């Protein structure tokens, strides 16, 4: 992104579309953006928009936000953790001034094989619904956080250093 900014690329765009990624850690885990840390990637996008945007309002949108649930795999979320990840990912996106969050994808399966199954290919396990349409806990979390954040405005964040808890405050 910095090279794009130094080349004056941000002068030609109104939207920065970012694939935030998130592997082997929670959506709020601190770490470098280049290592697929979700929140750090959003912050890097916003920093670049502020640095290279020439004061023009620009939007940050997310593509392929996910909570993958392949069975027995490294970097996989359990069904419970996936629901927590959906909730965190959406709340953090709102806190980081993201305009649009695209969820990848609605159903388990792949676009080239929508009703197929392959337990060894994690791409078959990114959905909010199982391939036959049954609801995963992550879908319910998506519905809940969408309702909670609809029209909400981020107010601030508080961190308790003693035990590393965090809270995000929204007004709605």
Explain what the structure shows.
With 172 residues, this protein is α/β, with parallel strands linked by helices. It has helices spanning 2-6, 38-52, 79-95, 137-149, and strands at residues 15-18, 59-65, 100-103, 153-160, 165-171. The chain has four helices and five strands. A three-stranded parallel β-sheet has the order 1-2-3, covered by helices on one side. A two-stranded antiparallel sheet has the order 4-5. Strand 4 (153-160) and strand 5 (165-171) form a beta hairpin. Helix 3 (79-95) packs parallel to helix 4 (137-149). The radius of gyration is 17 Å and the shape is globular.
SSE layout and pairings?
Elements: H1 2-6, E1 15-18, H2 38-52, E2 59-65, H3 79-95, E3 100-103, H4 137-149, E4 153-160, E5 165-171
Parallel strand pairs: 1-2, 2-3
Antiparallel strand pairs: 4-5
Helix pairs in contact: 3-4
The structure class reads alpha/beta
* Biggest sheet character: 3 strands, parallel
User: Helix tally?
Assistant: 4
Q: What is the ordering of alpha helices and beta strands?
A: HEHEHEHEE
Rg calculated over all Cα atoms: 17 Å
Q: Any key phrases for this structure?
A:
single chain; 172 residues; alpha/beta; 3-stranded parallel sheet; two-stranded antiparallel sheet; 29% helix
Give a nutshell description of this structure.
With 172 residues, the chain is an alpha/beta fold. It has helices at 2-6, 38-52, 79-95, 137-149, and strands spanning 15-18, 59-65, 100-103, 153-160, 165-171.
């Amino acid at each position: 992104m910095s090279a794009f900014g130094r080349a004056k690329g941000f002068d030609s765009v109104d939207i920065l579309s970012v694939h935030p990624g998130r592997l082997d850690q929670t959506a709020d885990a601190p770490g470098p953006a280049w290592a697929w840390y979700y929140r750090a990637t959003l912050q890097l996008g916003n920093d670049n928009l502020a640095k290279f945007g020439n004061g023009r309002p620009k939007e940050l949108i997310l593509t392929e936000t996910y909570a993958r649930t392949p069975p027995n795999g490294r970097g996989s979320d359990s069904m419970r953790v996936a629901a927590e990840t959906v909730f965190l990912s959406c709340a953090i996106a709102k806190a980081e001034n993201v305009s649009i969050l695209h969820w990848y994808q609605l159903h388990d399966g792949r676009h080239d094989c929508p009703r197929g199954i392959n337990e060894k290919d994690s791409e078959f396990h990114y959905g909010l619904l199982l391939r036959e349409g049954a609801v995963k806990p992550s879908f319910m979390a998506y519905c809940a956080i969408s309702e909670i954040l609809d029209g909400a405005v981020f107010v601030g964040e508080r961190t308790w250093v003693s035990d590393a808890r965090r809270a995000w405050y929204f007004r709605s």
